[in-house]
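Sorry to interrupt, but I need a hand with the structure work. It will help me judge whether the discrete encoding reads sensibly. Write everything out right here, beneath this request:
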Amino acid sequence: MPLRHLLAIEGMHPHDIGQLLDLAESYVLLNRSGKTQRDLLRGRTLINLFFEDSTRTRTSFELAGKRLGADVINMSVATSSVNKGETLLDTAATLNAMHCDLLVVRHAQSGAPDLLAQKVEAAVINAGDGTHEHPTQALLDALTIRRRKGRLAGLTVAICGDIAHSRVARSNIHLLTAMGSRVRVVGPPTLMPAEIEAFGVERHHDMDAGLDGADIVMMLRLQRERMGDGGLVPSAREFFRFWGLDAARLARARPDALVMHPGPMNRGVEIDSAVADDPLRSVIREQVEMGVAVRMAVLDTLSRGGANG
């Protein structure tokens, strides 16, 4: 069956992931050449529907759509009918009446993009839903790694921090394990899902042990907005002391290990500024660039109903 929507990495075949990454690679070269305007999506409408705040992801999808020639509309949920009590299904009916072609959705509730995909005619792209998944983030992370390391298979990737609330962690775990990477999750017990080993990863609560010999160190922010008042972590200072990444801790990883972060960063909480800005080890800015290319590849693929999956 052709790829109709992109709702999750879970269940995607490694071949299809590889095809998307290869196509994104061509868009990296196109963007860097300066010849970014194409007619691929001319006459198509892309709607960004973000129920949660976003800077990088929304702007990245907007730029990707415009570089492919689409008409891009950013719907402000804060001033829309949704904020006046309109249900998600009513919103779906409204979007259908607009005859949009591509719908990018970010929502605080897991499963919301999937529900919309069942009700709208447009191709739906999940830009992050609750604690479920963020598929394009995992794809851009994979592209960043593959461009730097030449491969994904056989690499040891340590994903560190707030695993329990991170849709980025879930999508990366699904993608990296499918592509043959060895994945470790590192963080305090209170921020670690109880069933995490079922995802084919190694669990570590000690940061030094978790980073030992790692090829990639992927840091995650503390998502306090999803924690409620449960007191899941100590103070920011204590969190950094035990699970933050600084130069001394990074030394436990391989000498050529890369440092990644999906953003936004909490400097001094999960990562030290000197490490985040290290020109040799940090690829955080490169991740942002890869995001535009990956989202161009996704829009391209979905607009054609292409790729097998």
In short: The radius of gyration is 19 Å. The mean pLDDT is 91.
